[in-house]
Amino acid sequence: MKHLYTWGAIFAIVFASVVGDVLLAHAMKQVGDVHALLRRSGVWTVVGRILSNQNFVLGVAAMAVAFFSLLFALSWGDVSLVAPAAASLTFIGNAFAARIFLHERVDRRRWIAAVLVAAGVALLAG
C-alpha cells in the first residue's frame, strides 16, 4: 500500500509540475522580453506585469502543489526512487505539453531522450 501512495504522489508531482511549467512559460511569453521591459519601464513595472498575470499566479500555485506532493512522496518512499522518477517523468511530460499546449517544436533528439528517460524510470520502478 505504501508503494501505491509513493507512486500516486510521484504522479501528482509530475502533473502539477508540468501544469506549472506550461502556465509559467505561457505567462512569461505574454509578459514579453523582460530585459527590454526592464530597460524601458523599470523593475516595478516588470514585477507588476508578472504578478498581475493570471497564468503566472496559477503556475506558482501548481508548483506549490508539486512541492507539497514531493514532501508526501518523500515521507512514503525513498529519495533514490522519488527524486529521479519525478524529475524524469516531468521531463517527458514537459516535452508532450510543450508540443501540445505551447506549440513548440520538439525535435527527434528530444523524443529519443524522452524514450530513454522512460526506460530509466521503468528500471527504477522494477
Structure description:
By secondary structure, the chain is mainly α. The protein has one domain. 87% of the residues lie in helices and 0% in strands. It contains six helices and no strands. The radius of gyration is 17 Å and the shape is globular.
Give a short summary of the structure.
With 126 residues, the protein is mainly alpha-helical. Helices cover 87% and strands 0% of the residues.
Fraction in beta strands? under 5%
SSE sequence, one letter per element: HHHHHH
Structural class: mainly alpha
Instruction: Provide the number of structural domains.
Output: 1
Overall form: globular
Write the layout of secondary structure elements.
Blueprint: H1 2-31, H2 34-41, H3 43-51, H4 54-76, H5 79-100, H6 108-125
Tag the structure with descriptive keywords:
single chain, 126 residues, mainly alpha, 87% helix
